[in-house]
Specification:
Aspartate Aminotransferase, domain 1, 2 domains, four-stranded antiparallel sheet, 13 strands
Length: 426
């Protein structure tokens, strides 16, 4: 069998041997569209739809008693979902909690674990991380009375797309109190070596945490075995939890008992939460790092969505993701030569997350033309087209058809009929 064949027949052959193909039936797919934006917002599954309706039903039928009764009592829902997410990040029971949002959870974790002392008072991040993380880190430094320009280290990229672990480790100096890095770079899709970075930070007595927004649900992790101090992520990308779905937060059990930097009602140990005492008795798990009342209806779809991952297996998801992104890259190189495209994402499997980053000077207009052809991409300024074939619902034939439509757009210069101005939400 050939390793690569550009024919449609080969794509169909790959679909026939795809062990995850059956999961396509679990999602609401529009047969007219090829959806390649699951790294930004995953599609709705039938199970997620059903679990949302189930919790709406419990509200309708039980009212306040929904907190303690029904199929999924709300009072324990965050812990239940945390344990469902734990295998995806390599965590033990109690180390993960479904709560907040990516940035709220980052604020909580930095408030808890950033403990500047003497000259060790800087936070280390990187030049390519998602802006929201930088906004949060700057505001946290300001809360401590520090100038972010002086105390926030942003390790530069050598090529504008990727980071070198050696550069990150070299920047872990004696004045660094905390390291916050992405697992996968949101633009180029580079996967960092979390284990090596954690080991290097701990050798220097520095705490380290990771933003897993672009890796959870597509890349297996072993956070507890690696000794990662904490992590946080969203659930609306690869986990298909829905727009604004509740985020995830991980704290290694070795840190349990650390007082939450931002304490609140649901930081409490559940057995005493309704004692109404003004002295917080914090939960003795990651649940202590919750703040307010869980957003039940924003968490509900995760019950259905995470059941799909339990059934499919994260290692099988990763295997298909690597195969289908490799297939996409091979098709682009074969079908679109001399059309101005280049790949910003790493080529090696062990260095690549779940999306392909196509670079083109006309990326804005090409994305608009793709949408006109019913292919849904993701644009990142100034010149990146992100394409994410999702293991649970994207077929190899989808990828073949998407590249064929892109080829037609480029050969006929169809993108030229669109403006350069990007949409408000891209």
């Amino acid at each position: 069998m050939p390793m690569f064949d550009a024919s449609k027949r080969w794509a169909q052959h790959l679909d026939q041997s795809d062990t995850l193909a059956k999961f396509r039936e679990e999602f609401y797919l529009d047969g007219r569209r090829i959806y390649l934006d699951g790294n930004s917002l995953g599609l709705l599954s039938k199970r997620a739809h059903d679990s949302l309706l189930d919790l709406v039903h419990s509200w309708r039928q039980l009212g306040i008693d929904g907190w303690s009764e029904g199929n999924h009592p709300w009072f324990y829902l965050s812990e239940q979902l945390g344990d469902m997410m734990a295998p995806l990040v390599g965590a033990d029971s109690g180390e993960v909690i479904a709560t907040g949002s990516t940035t709220i959870n980052l604020h909580q974790l930095v408030s808890t674990f950033y403990q500047p002392s003497g000259h060790r008072n800087k936070i280390l991040a990187d030049q390519l991380t998602f802006p929201s993380d930088i906004y949060a880190l700057k505001s946290q430094l300001q809360q401590h009375g520090f100038d972010p320009d002086q105390k926030l280290i942003r390790v530069p990229s050598q090529d504008g797309w990727t980071l070198r672990e050696t550069d990150l480790i070299d920047a872990m100096n004696d004045d660094v109190a905390l390291v916050i890095l992405p697992s996968v770079l949101y633009k180029s899709g580079q996967l960092l070596n979390l284990e090596a970075l954690t080991h290097a930070a701990h050798e220097r007595n520095i705490l380290i945490g990771f933003d897993l927004a672009h890796s959870v649900g597509v890349v297996p992790h072993h956070l507890t075995d690696w000794g990662v101090d904490f992590a946080f992520w969203c659930t609306y990308k690869y986990l298909n939890g829905g727009p604004g779905s509740v985020g995830g937060l991980y704290v290694h059990k070795k840190h349990w008992g650390a007082a939450p930097g931002l304490a609140g009602w649901f930081s409490s140990k559940k057995s005493v939460q309704f004692d109404m005492d003004h002295t917080l008795v914090a939960a003795d798990t990651a649940a202590a790092y919750q703040i307010g009342t869980p957003h039940i209806l924003s968490a509900a779809p995760l019950l259905g969505s995470l059941s799909l991952f339990a059934e499919a297996g994260i290692h099988e998801v990763r295997n298909k993701s690597l195969r289908i992104t490799r297939y996409l890259m091979d098709l682009v190189n074969h079908q679109l030569p001399n059309m101005g495209f280049s790949l910003a994402n790493p080529q090696q499997d062990q260095r690549r997350g779940g999306h392909v980053a196509l670079v083109h000077d006309e990326a804005t207009r090409i994305c608009k033309a793709l949408k006109a052809h019913q292919v849904i991409p993701d644009f990142r300024p100034p010149n990146v087209i992100r394409l994410a074939p999702i293991a649970l619902y994207t077929s190899f034939s989808d990828v073949w058809n998407a590249v064929e439509r892109l080829k037609i757009i480029m050969e006929n210069h169809e993108y030229e009929q669109f403006t350069q101005q990007r949409e408000v939400v891209s």
